[in-house]
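To assess whether ligand presence alters the predicted conformation, the chain was also submitted together with zinc ion. Input:
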Amino acid sequence: MAIRVKTTRRKVFEHDAPLRVVAVLGGRLSEEGQWLNSELDGLLERVIKQTRFKGEFGDSLFIPTEAGQVLVFGLGKRRGHTLDDLRLAGAKVAEAVVERGVREAAVENFFLKRFGKVEATEVLAEGLYLGAYRFNRYKSGVPEPRARFVIAQGFGPAAERAGVVAGGVFLARDLVNEPPNVLNPVELARRAEALARETGLEVNVFGPAKIQELGMGAYWAVAKGSDNEPRFIELVYRPEGEPVRKLALVGKGLTFDTGGYSLKPTPSMTTMKGDMGGAAAVIGAMKAIAALKPPVEVRAYVAAAENMISGHAYRVDDVLKAMNGKTIEVLNTDAEGRLTLADALAYASQAEPDAIVELSTLTGSCVVALGRQIAGLFAADEALGRAVQRAAEAAGEKVWPMPMEPAYKRLLKSEIADIKNVGTREGGAIQAALFLAEFADAPFVHLDIAGPAFAPSEEDHPFGPSGGTGFGVRTLVRWVLDQA
Ligand code: BES
Ligand code: ZN
Ligand code: ZN
């Protein structure tokens, strides 16, 4: 996608562009806006008055002038803005610009004084990228968006960093948005391999034979019902020199989840191409990490599979054996994510990482609890949980801590095996987290991103169009950099 955010040391009015963006803050033109207004002999003030433009947060007023278009952008009240507001403003500006098909826009560095050059530029740039994203690959005659944003009085390296993170988010969104007939497990592995070639990451991919040989009986059971073969994917980032820490990222990679014999009704199945949102997040994060080169080792794992129905599919009542030796009674084939993750977590643990952070579109229960914009954070290790929560806050992604109530473990007791894959309906997201923790042999955090990974409608997602959101990429990148 041809979206670029650059910087210039000049002010908006000094920069020649077909569109220039200045702010109205607390009902008044910003300083930048006033400069431009005087260049235009008071035109901006006159139109603002005539149209009674109030400049509520997110409002746009387009003014054609002899020196190109001007977008007067509302930032709402005078005070109290946060970095999240700035990111959102950037996204809304980008949306307005892309929807109008404008190729280049010079944008005021809205909160330069409030946040300082580095942070103001980075967060604005991030918002511009996130809001400009579109997925038009399957729309005949609709081109991919092309737009160049130039942040006035900006700090170049900060915009570049935002571009790297956005590159990871865009990759994650693309992977989620691809339809499931295109992006099956084999194709997901191909994309990971292509990323490795492009970035110098190491990649290892296993097929059915190796998966069975490794004893990944839970993962294999889920995968074997599909004609599309599973692929176990490992991406490795190694720093130059001795790594100061070894980290593991694990992502749920169901390229489609029909529910299996515990079949989903159609309305619940319609967004299930997004059941690899966790995988997309870890692969997207690895892309950014490869470019940012922190001094830590990072390994990403995806047990990619498709949960389908056939004569080879697993059943309710089956008993499976995961690679750590634990046996699992299947009581619902739609609780498949935790089965694939059991083996992915056990495998990740063998490399003895200092921490495992795992992301999955795991339960409808978590969506009921926290809605569509907030992920559930389940920490088996308290310090790690706090670190991930801090990273999410800094990255502007919403997560909320949920309890790993030990008393609920008994709900997963099986009559016939070591554990069963579902307990009761109540507290379902907690039980799912407790299940996963049985297979992670390292400090462990689970993020249930079933709500925020996929936006069925635009209203569900403030930073871009409906579909894949790339949720988790920014948190993971931030957390990994924090470990350095
Ligand atoms: N992929 C789903 C969870 C999901 C639901 C993701 C809604 C995104 C939006 C998962 O595999 C699933 O079906 N979970 C079941 C678990 C239940 C059978 C214990 C669920 O949440 O209903
Ligand atoms: Zn399912
Ligand atoms: Zn699923």
